[in-house]
Structures are given as structure tokens and as C-alpha cells.
Amino acid sequence: MVTVKHRKLLGIQTPPASRVHPLVRFARRHTAGLLFLLPALLLFAFFVWYPIIYGFVLSFQDNSLFGGSGSWVGLGNFRRIFADPLFTVAWGNTLKFALYGLLFGYAIPVVLALAINEVRYGKAYFRLAFYLPVIIPPLVTVFLWGYMYTPDGGLLNGLLGQIGIGNQPWLQSPNSALQSLVVVTTWANAGGTMLIYLAALQSIPAELYEAAELDGAGIARRIWHVVLPQIRGVMLIMLILQIIATFQIFTEPFTLTSGGPVNSTTTIMLLIYYYAFQNADLGAASALSVILFLVLVTLSLGYFGVTRRLWAAGE
Q: CA-CA distances (angstroms) from residue 23 to 28, 31, 34, 169?
């Protein structure tokens, strides 16, 4: 048998090996796995990527919910929504809601997870108690809080009346409506985030706690110097997810306040709904959706760029 070494000694030229593209080589090697993934990829493309692409197309067209002309209008839809006074109002309310969500909805799950992790007895009970609101359907949640916020005869005002405080216009005042919605969303979603933090806390090596205790560190110092650095990665991921979720708030203002009073709870998602289903203007709704999509993508890319540098500097 003539080997490659013998060919070189005898001066026989070895035919060049056929070059196969890495993607083709990968497809041949993982054909079975790709076939199993194909149905999921097709569904994902049809229900996710196709609507995104079609939304970009609609944003440059004159389309109505009841059958518009479909003619191209260029940036006309964008100019119209920029001229709408509600555009600025909706963005202002959305940014306020995101800020309140970060102050309460992001911090409270961390505090709950740290507190439950330090409890010696009844951890399972507390985990279940705080997670129960997550499994309640969103509409049930908003109707429950709608009853609690009722000005006359509501649960919260009834409790305040027992201690001599008059009825409060929770959802009827522009000064308190948005903050009241933040309470609803925090109550409904904090339990799920808390479980994620609890799982991260369980992965911290026990040796670190023991070393901190031997050094005489109290609970506060253990949390600051041991716990928080260990769950930093999870907290960074949850922060961007929290920002994205707060920018897409819709169910609570739609069902509890309908954007009022005096448009104080009109958010971007609610304004998109009004454009599409009240004004039957799919072009304007798509244009506003594209703007929101680009803002969230820009925020996400910038956030991950900054956190990657901070992470590298910390290492």
C-alpha cells in the first residue's frame, strides 16, 4: 500500500482534498438533530420573524385595519406619530413606569430571596406563598386589584378607614394611577424573579459562608461581600429583562385605567393598540412598533456592551 509518505519519496503528487464548507460539514454531521429542530425553527420563523419583517414593511405603507390601499408612503407614518401629542406623553409614562419598576420590581425580589435564604425553617412555605401570584392569570390579577382599588368599598380604602384615613383615589388620580399600576405588576411578577435569585443563592459554595463566618462577618457583610458578588451575573441578566418587560407594559393600564385619567397611564404599547384597533391605522401602529423595537434593541446592545466591559474589569 502506497502511503502519503511513500508518495512524497517517489515524487508522486497527492491529489488535493476537496474543500467542504464548514456549514455543509456541520449539516452532514448533525443531519438528524437538524431534522428534529426543523419544525420548531419553522414555527419560530412564521410566528416571530415573519411578523417582525412584515411590521417593518407595514410601517412604510398606508394600511387600514379594514383594507387600506397598501401604497408606499415612505416616512409618512413616522412623521404622523411624531406629530401626535400622545407620542411624547406615552414615552414619558413608559419611562416613568420603567423607573418605578426598577426601584421596586427589581429590588424587592432580591430582598425577598435574601430573606428567605437566611430563614432556617419554613422555606418551602415562603417560596410557595410568594410564587402563588405568578400562576394567577393576568386578567384575574387585574380584576382582583381593581376591586382592592375601588374608591368606595374597596379593600384598601376599607383598611385605611379603620385607622381613620379617608378614601384614596388610587386609579382615579393622575398623581397616583401610574404608581398603583407598578404595585400590581410588582405583586404579580416578583415571585418568579425571586425563585431565580433563590436558585442562584443555592449555587454559592458553602465554604464561602463558612470563611466569612470565621472572619467574624455578620449578615450584612456576608450579603455585601459574598452573596451579591456571586449572583452578579444573574442580577445583570434580570436587569435587562426587567427593562424590556416594563417598556412593554399593556395589560394593567388597558384593563384598569384605559390609559387614564388624563392619559397619565397611556403607555407605548397602549398607544400602539389605539392606533391599530381604535383608529384602524395599521401603518401608524407598525411605525410606533418599529420605533419601540429599535429602542429596545439599542438599549440591550448598549447594556451588554457596558456590562461586558465592567465584567472584564472586575475579573
A: 9, 12, 12, 62
